[in-house]
Specification:
This protein is α+β, with helices and mostly antiparallel strands. The longest helix has 26 residues. The N and C termini lie far apart (82 Å). The protein has 2 domains: 31 residues; 125 residues, Sandwich (Jelly Rolls), CATH 2.60.120.10. It contains 1 helix and 13 strands, in the order αβββββββββββββ. It is globular and about 50 Å long. The strands form 3 sheets. It has a 6-stranded antiparallel sheet with strand order 1-2-3-11-6-9, with no helix packed on it.
Length: 163
């Protein structure tokens, strides 16, 4: 009887300790809140008006998760390229035109409206941007490094496109 009571007391005490430590971990995670006014846009060097904002992480570092936003000006798309890791893209503003494969052809581009999502598999060739009359903003999540490898390193990185 005493052994059962001692065991029950230990189990209850252990439960209180575990519950206490668990609730503290859940109550105090490192939240990140970024309002649209807090987004810090930077011109992409050589990007013909394309801007990038890093919201979380560092896309240049290996192994970490990052979240960025990319803003394309109207009628500007990137040439066929690929990235070393999977990327998850959500369209936030405008119509984002997307194509796959090594051949750039805006007539074949698939238009994605705000709220649309696209998965880019690692090392899969694609091209995308704003082929219409409006700017486009997409949010991209991936694992670093978030480098871009062009299919044709001697060709243009950016192409003016109309749809």
């Amino acid at each position: 009887m005493k052994a059962n009571r001692a065991l029950a007391t230990c189990l209850i005490a252990s439960g209180i300790i575990v519950a206490g430590s668990t609730s503290r971990a859940v109550d105090n995670p490192p939240f990140v809140r970024i309002s649209p006014a807090d987004v810090h846009w930077q011109d992409l060097p050589g990007g013909h008006g394309v801007q990038v904002a890093t919201l979380l992480g560092d896309p240049s570092k290996s192994g970490g998760i990052y979240v960025i936003r990319v803003k394309f000006p109207p009628h500007l798309m990137d040439s066929p390229h690929w990235h070393p890791h999977d990327r998850y893209v959500t369209v936030l503003q405008g119509t984002w035109y997307t194509g796959t494969g090594d051949t750039f052809d805006p007539a074949r581009a698939v238009p994605l409206k705000p709220g649309s999502f696209m998965f880019h598999p690692a090392k899969a060739t694609h091209w995308d941007g704003a082929a219409g009359d409006e700017p486009v903003i997409v949010q991209i999540m991936g694992e670093g490094p978030g480098t871009t490898t062009p299919v044709d390193p001697k060709g243009p990185a950016w192409i003016e496109a109309h749809r």
